[in-house]
Amino acid sequence: MSLPRRSYDPRRVCLFPMPQLPAFIQTNKRSFGIYLSGALFALGWWFFLDACIISSLTLKPPRDPSLPFEPPATHISFADWVPGLCATIGMIVVNLIDKQHLTEAGGTFSFGGGSGGGFSGDSVQWRARLFLFVGFALLAGGLAGSITVLTVKYLVADLPQGFEYYGVANVVQNSGIMLSTVLLWISQNTESDFEYNLTL
Q1: Where are the transmembrane segments (predicted)?
Q2: What are phi and psi of 123, to 5 degrees?
């Protein structure tokens, strides 16, 4: 049994066609990707800072000393901050790398203009790839650390209902930072409509 030609195209990979992007996004893909990346980064930090504010407010005793005050079972500490800071540093490291150095085989790196020196003549490609690896390792370590903090501090421990939000906000933060980094990397590698490569 074969399908009619109008409903089947042998070049298609998926059975259902993906929807077309609107025209204003197709013409400004790079700018749209960069803005969306920034929004994901801000949203991730917003979730975590929201959890930090809630945690800080639960630590404060009431102004009226006659009211009963019971300190919370747990609160956000420095251990909760470390994964997000690692992921943010990883995002900075990944996006500071010049993408051309990753594919250049003959690039050289030297300090100063002299012919001698410790690093003159060395390939820059392996250094760029090393920094890229370190950046993505920091991102992955941040995400793994946030999942570990969620599991060990908030899920395994016998805590009252509601405290797991602190750990979930940490995982959402690191996931947003990682997605933001990947989206920014892809957006920066796409050429803008107004960029022209002129070679003589």
Answers
A1: 34-58, 78-97, 130-156, 168-186
A2: -70, 135
